[in-house]
Design a protein that fits this description.
With 355 residues, the chain is an alpha/beta fold. It folds into 2 domains: 10-29 and 270-354, Aspartate Aminotransferase, domain 1 (Alpha-Beta Complex), CATH 3.90.1150.10; 31-268, Aspartate Aminotransferase, domain 2 (3-Layer(aba) Sandwich). 41% of the residues lie in helices and 16% in strands. It has a 7-stranded mixed sheet, with helices on both faces. It is globular and about 60 Å long. It starts with 9 loop residues before the first helix and ends with a helix.
Length: 355
């Protein structure tokens, strides 16, 4: 019988495509997380979150945010957002969010599904940030008891456009919500990148400003599949464990989710990973601007870069195996860096842009 090849040639790898800049989801597991998973794999551990690993993560989260909060582990960001919102909302409530927020564009209606009827109220705003005046108009236009009652305002940090809410901007959103007896939910799939960008402590842009619930992303930061739902007001998390179980998000081997976060939290790996991704994004922006005269459309404040590419150049790059997404019609594309992006990756991409 002919021998089956067990390795992939360089040419075959080239044909398989370059996914380095398609998303920060395409990167592998960072070494520290992999080591933590190997460590937890030695011996048995109690199930469903009763293990020492999960307890350590919860204590580490309290230390990180310097407050007595409740933290829960789930598999992915969609579940984190949808279940957090479901915890805050009755079916007759609504959630105010940006019209390009992930909960609106990329979660298949999960927030509405898990809240059993809540509605998303969409508002615009530059750079993916909610325009408070526009939100005020939308809320004021709700016809009282005949419409869903606005209950939560959801912001994304960093935003889907790679921008970062400043402290003052978050404080303004939180005050806006407080005046209307609304909660503040933060989709923090790239929260680490926002912290790296702002050079602040996590508590400075969350509970100290009035954020009630944070969905802290680990998957895009070097984990396999591990997100944290953090309630800064513990009364809001009452029976959230039952909600997780009902939604299929209470892992029997929770220790393996927890181990990933222990790997990220130890020695601030989560922050170093984010700092690296942000730095690579800035470098890519500089190289594309200087070497190829590419128009950078939005500020590169986190790890997403939005560039204007001629259609022919985009097609040529695709034909050479580069994967990235058109994000804003007609010619704005998103390229993203991760904890694993290298200088070589950047030079290869810029080299193909210059061909």
């Amino acid at each position: 019988m002919p021998r089956v090849a067990t390795s992939i040639s360089k040419i075959e790898m080239e044909r398989a495509g370059h996914h380095e800049f398609a998303s920060d989801n395409t990167a592998g597991i960072c070494p520290e997380v992999l080591t933590a998973l190997e460590e937890v794999n030695h011996g048995a551990a109690e199930s469903y979150g009763a293990d020492q690993w999960t307890s350590r993560v919860r204590e580490s989260v309290r230390d990180l945010f310097e407050t007595d909060c409740d933290a829960y582990l789930v598999f992915n960001g969609t579940a984190a957002n949808a279940l957090a919102l479901a915890q805050l909302c009755q079916p007759f409530h609504s959630v105010v969010c940006h019209d390009r927020a992930h909960i609106q564009t990329d979660e298949c209606g999960a927030p509405e599904f898990f809240t059993r009827g809540s509605k998303l109220l969409l508002v615009g705003g530059d750079g993916g940030k909610i325009d408070i005046d526009a939100a005020d108009v939308v809320i004021a236009s709700q016809p009282g008891v005949h419409a869903h009652k606005p209950r939560v305002i959801s912001i994304t940090q960093a935003t889907e456009f790679g921008t970062v809410y400043t402290r003052d901007e978050i404080a303004a959103v939180a005050e806006f919500a407080r005046q209307r007896e609304m909660f503040v939910h933060m989709d923090g799939a790239r929260f680490a990148n926002a912290i790296a960008s702002l050079s602040c402590s996590p508590n400075e842009i969350t509970w100290k400003l009035g954020v009630d619930v944070l969905c802290f992303g680990g998957t895009k930061n070097g984990a396999v599949a591990a997100e944290l739902v953090i309630f800064f007001k513990k009364e809001l998390s009452r029976e959230f464990d039952y909600r997780l179980k009902q939604a299929g998000q209470l892992a029997s081997k929770t220790s393996f989710l927890a181990a990933q976060w222990l790997g990220l939290l130890k020695n601030e790996v989560w922050l170093r990973n984010a700092q690296h991704a942000n730095a690579m994004t800035r470098k890519l922006a500089e190289r594309l601007r200087a070497a190829a005269k590419i128009d950078i459309v939005l500020p590169a404040e986190a790890n997403a870069l939005f560039v204007r590419l001629p259609e022919q150049l985009a097609r040529d790059l695709n034909s050479r195996g580069w994967h990235f997404y058109k994000y804003i019609e007609p010619d704005v594309y998103r390229v993203m860096c991760s904890w694993a992006t290298t200088d070589t990756d950047i030079e290869r991409f810029v080299g193909d842009v210059l061909r």
